[in-house]
Amino acid sequence: MNCRWIVAIIAALLFVGGHVDDLRAETGHEGWLRYAPLERLAAQKYQTLPASVVVLGDSEISGVAQEELLRGVRGMLGRTLRAGKTQPKENAIVLGTLAELRAAAPGLRPSSELREDGFWLTTGNVGGFHSLIITAANERGVLYGVFALLNKIALDETLTSLNEVQQPFAPIRWVDQWDNLDGRIERGYAGRSIFFENGSVRADLTRVRDYARLLASIGINGCAINNVNADPRILEDSFLPQLARIADAFRPWGVRMSISVDLGSPKLVGGLDTFDPLDARVAEWWRTKVDEIYRLIPDFGGFVVKADSEGRLGPSTYKRTPSDAANVIAHALKPHGGLVFYRAFVYNHHLDWRDPKNDRAKAAYDNFHPLDGKFDDNVIIQVKYGPIDFQAREPVSPLLGALQKTNEAIELQITQEYTGQQRHLCFLPPMWKEVLDFDMHAADGRTPVRDLVAGKTFHRPTGGFVGIANVGLDANWLAHPLAMANLYGFGRLAWDPNLNPRAIAEEWTRLTFGSDPSMVRTIADMQLSSWQVYESYTGPLGAQTLTDILGSHYGPGIESSEQNGWGQWHRADHQGIGMDRSLATGTGYATQYSLPVAKLYESVATTPDELLLFFHHVPYTYVLHSGKTVIQHIYDSHYEGAERAAGYVQQWKLLQGHIDDERYQSVLARLEYQAGHAIVWRDAICNYFLALSGVPDTRGHAGNFPDRIEAEAMQLQGYVPVEVTPRENASAGRAIECLQAQGCAATFRFTRNPGWYELDVQYFDQNNGESRFRVLVNDQVVDQWVANDQLPATKIGADSSTRRRITGLALRPGDQIRIEGIPDREEHAPLDYVEIHPSPE
Ligand code: GCW
Predict the structure, then answer these.
(1) What are the CA-CA distances from residue 273 to residues 279, 281, 285, 297, 448 (Å)?
(2) Would you tell me the crossing angle of helices 429-437 and 484-495 to the nearest 10 degrees?
(3) pLDDT reported for residue 85
(4) Which of 157, 349, 512, 729 is close enough to 152 for a disulfide, judged by CB 3.0 to 4.6 Å?
(5) First-last CA distance in the chain
(6) Ramachandran quadrant class, 54 (left: phi over 0; alpha: psi -120 to 50; beta: rest)
(7) Which of 87, 99, 172, 171 is nearest to 135 (CA)?
(8) Is residue 395 within 8 Å of 611, Cβ to Cβ?
(9) Which residues fall within 8 angstroms of residue 369, CB to CB, at 6 or more apart?
(10) Strand, coil or helix: 49
(11) Ligand 1 contacts CB of residue 651 (under 6 A)
């Protein structure tokens, strides 16, 4: 063996050895709190870390803080700190509130006053010994300080001359879960509830504790655990002790539990004949109920209320206002320090679509602005970031700038209801950041949304951020390993909305996957571009996500928005598209903003391209600021978006061997699926608007599929053609299905030049059957699979449309390609088309 070989083998062994720890199989359960062992060099930096940790308080939170520090240091540095409870007799890491530290270190004072949950990391003399001190105004702050210290170690930051104060931007940093008592989660995409099963709280709450730990590590201090479409039984006397068990699991991590309630509860579970908020018996009922809750759960957070919305009961039954309803509950909670989160998502979903002046976007402002100043101080109006409903692109809700004498919180959606449901990559902090930075011109000077919701602009006592999280029992919480960056990013932005999304993405990647710089860059690049990419193939120019709004909110469903009362109209017709919301000729929604913002949106010329169709109806030939016509933009952006989605697969493949195989494969499978589904979206939207507008694509993409062979055009044995509705949701509006149990086949001949090819089989994978497929080239089986993905569909259409890519096929003209399908239950081995491309070099 020559020398070069020996060197190469040693290098290979070292490489493997060096990565062994990083590459152990991981489920993602630990999220960003993996505490993976640091490499030797990095670990050396922390050699002077004291060998013991002393916790001065004796609360549960203090205990948890100490344990977490032990766990983190053991994981990352391989050292077990000596744990103590009394003043140190050696150099130590000291944990305690400022009050607890006062006796031991009287001179200790942070440079700025510590607010609730803020903390200070410093060094100093405690009891005569040099110590690393983690202190805060309250115990939760101490716990946050511990996480911050561990973060620094994980991110390889120096601890010398440590002197850092961190304060939360706003007091409210909450997540909501939309869990039902039966264990399902509304708009949850990662398994069943961690809280409930079969109408009760789960016996095993381990996952609840783990969730609280993740939340605490990013500064989230409250969680509403059940669906805002609330089951009134949650307030039954017999249920309350069960809730107390969840609160007990949260408490050590400083997470306050709260619940969503049905406003009809006094009648539905209380036995009264009314739930009129102005009826004294109703007020008394709430008071008694709340007192009872606090007897069991002394740190209970409060109630979230969805009322007069999407069929929920509300004060309108008695011609009362949202403030009447909110205040009666707020009075009951006030003595205990509880809050009411009253949601501004109140609108009429039976709007007359024929009336061009009607506009759902106006509802939140119309309902709540007149009540500004009428809400009690412990009421927070929880406002979705946009006026419609978590679309991939919306303007900021005007209500956020219009409440001056009322507390508010912005509601963001971590669970990707309209943004790909954790099957598509869509990192949302860049969107949230745009929203939070948007200047509402609500008063003199700059008034960005972040200041408004935090209560800074109008000096409100409270306010902040609420994220709809909907984690589930899936080991990795949100199903897509990369989607956890959204939960992380929400917490980080709620703590400090001035952070930049790239820093957040990089930090999350390093904590989640390791610090290899090219890996961090690749993943952060993918994350940062992903919202734009998703937007570009799912809906143009602010027309909203063109999804099926009547069903899953997942795949394309362009007409589902129109001609019904839900009000998510895009008003597309043969001549043009967009909803006119100007004052001059439209619904007048634009005037709900302060003057400078209203002016911006009132005119077609000044409205930014990405929101043009939200505010204006324009002809397809209208020329955008970008220089393209609207219709050409629709075509191009959908083609570019689908191409960029395909690029993610290539980018990810570069990381093989740098990430443990379990997570590598899991992400790869999702990205491959996304690349295929982006084409489903692209084709549906482009074909639809090509047909509607009659304007051809100047680049010749839309409506042109040279490499495609429709299944219905193949030679069919047993398979029968079916029409698909809406027609744009299958190629050429048709598919084939097999209604005979023994199976069917579709065959065609390859006619192109000899060479290496890849073959995409576009089929439909419903969740009510597991069909089997085989592909044969001249009787040789080249691939086979079972259609057993869990997509949100029970029938043929865009939600179930998916693809199998068979790579590296040597094909010659005349080869016979045959696809065999065997149906199962309701799923009839449905096929859409095949596409054949030359193999990439
Ligand atoms: O986005 C819509 C969802 C509903 C949800 C509602 C809401 C919980 O489609 O599933 O209900 O908003 O926010 O109340």
Answers:
(1) 11, 10, 12, 28, 45
(2) 20
(3) 86
(4) 157
(5) 34
(6) beta
(7) 99
(8) yes
(9) 399, 402, 403, 592
(10) coil
(11) no
Given a contact cutoff of 8 angstroms between Cβ atoms, the answer to whether 218 and 492 are in contact is: yes
Q: Is 374 buried (19+), middle (13-18) or exposed (0-12) by CB count in 10 A? A: middle
| Distant-in-sequence, close-in-space partners of 135: CB < 8 Å, separation ≥ 6 | 94, 95, 96, 97, 98, 101, 108, 110, 114, 119, 120, 122, 141, 142, 145
Strand-strand pairing, 576-577 and 618-619: antiparallel
Q: Is 186 in the pocket of ligand 1 (CB under 6 A)?
A: yes
- What the block records as the tokens of 216 is 């605490």
Q: Please report the atom of ligand 1 found closest to the CA of residue 411.
A: 13
CA 325/CA 316 separation, integer angstroms: 9
> Is the separation of the CB atoms in 321 and 406 below 8 Å?
no
Amino acid identity of residue 602, one-letter, is E
The pTM assigned to this predicted structure is: 0.96
Task: Look up residue 709 and give its two tokens.
Answer: 């062979």
**Cα gap 416→433, rounded to integer Å:** 17
The 10 Å CB-count burial string (b at 16+, else e) for 687-704 is: bbbbebbebebeeebbee
Helices in 539-629 by DSSP H: which ranges?
A: 595-602, 612-615
**H helices of 221-279, where?**
240-250, 265-268
pLDDT one-digit tens code per residue, 727-784? 999 999 999 999 999 999 999 999 999 999 999 999 999 999 999 999 999 999 999 9
Cβ count near 563 (within 10 Å) = 9
3-state secondary structure of 607: coil
State the sign of the Cα–Cα–Cα–Cα dihedral 314, 315, 321, 326: negative
Q: What's phi and psi for 647, nearest 5 deg?
A: -60, -30
Q: Which two tokens stand for residue 205?
A: 């709450």
- Ranges of the chain whose pLDDT falls below 50: 1, 3-21
Decide: 465 in ligand 1 pocket, CB within 6 A. Answer: no
| DSSP H/E element including 340 | strand 339-343
Mutate to test the pocket of ligand 1, among 176, 310, 413 (most ligand atoms within 8 A of CB): 310
Does residue 229's CB lie within 6 angstroms of at least one atom of ligand 1?
yes
Annotated catalytic residue 610: no
Q: Are 377 and 406 a contacting pair, CB within 8 Å?
A: no
Q: Is the peptide bond before 838 cis (omega within 30 degrees of 0)?
A: no
Evaluate whether 516 touches 506 at the Cβ level (below 8 Å): no
One-character DSSP codes across 775-833: EEETTEEEEEEE-----S-SSSSTTTEEEEEEEEEEE-TT-EEEEEEE-BTTB---EEE
Dmax over Cα atoms in the chain, in whole Å? 93
Distance, CA 229 to ligand 1 centroid (Å)? 8
Quote the DSSP letter at residue 629: B
Nearest to 544 by CA among 567, 563, 576, 574: 567
Structure tokens at 579: 């909803």
Q: Are 306 and 343 in contact (CB under 8 A)?
A: yes
User: Would you say 808 and 777 are in contact if contact means Cβ atoms under 8 Å apart?
Assistant: no
In angstroms, rounded to a whole number, what is the distance separating the alpha carbons of residues 581 and 430? 26
> Annotated catalytic, 827?
no
Cα(389) to ligand 1 centroid in Å equals 8
**SS3 call for 380:** strand
Residue 67 known to be catalytic: no
Q: What pLDDT, in 10s, does the model give residues 576-611?
A: 999 999 999 999 999 999 999 999 999 999 999 999
Q: Among the atoms of ligand 1, which is closest to the Cα of residue 418?
A: 1
**What would the 3-class secondary structure string for 731-784 be?**
HHHEEEEECCCCCEEEEEECCCCCEEEEEEEEEECCCCCCCEEEEEECCEEEEE
- Nearest 5°: the CA angle 401, 407, 413 is 75
* Cβ atoms 31, 484 nearer than 8 A: yes
